[in-house]
Prior knowledge:
Blueprint (H helix, E strand, L loop, with lengths): L2 E4 L16 E2 L8 E5 L15 E6 H5 L6 E5 L15 E5 L9 E6 L2 E10 L2 E5 L8 E3 L4 E12 L8
Amino acid sequence: MYSIFTNQSSPSKAESNLSQTPVEMALEPVARDLPLLAHRISAGFPSPAADYIEVGLDLNDYLVRNKPATFLFTVKGDSMSGASIEEGDKVIVDRAMTPKHRDIVVAVVDGDYTLKRLFKHRGRVELRAENPAYSPIEFKDGSELLVWGVVVGVVRRYSARGG
């Protein structure tokens, strides 16, 4: 039988697709309300959206559900590109959430951090990349899987020059 452990202290060995040290979210973050437009934006041609300003959006409130258990990781590698998680993105990870089938998780496998999708089906447990170039990590009898936390969001910053 395999074992899944959650919310344990993290091993110190680095992994190939996440930076090793999580960055804890500020307990008292500075709230910055950004205007949220009620009008859905078209990816085709421009729309005069200024007439549709709704309420402000605080990204901390939107992305962080449990401040003491929420951390940021910087993504390295392309194993999750099929889930639109790219190199350099920041993933928001909640350690208090219970991992479920198909959640994207930060896991520790053989002392290494990894970012993968969790599959639990008919007694089998796998961590799957969202890139066909990577094979699933399978857990068999006697194997241990430490799920460090569940990914609840992704932040990507684009260059002001568009490239």
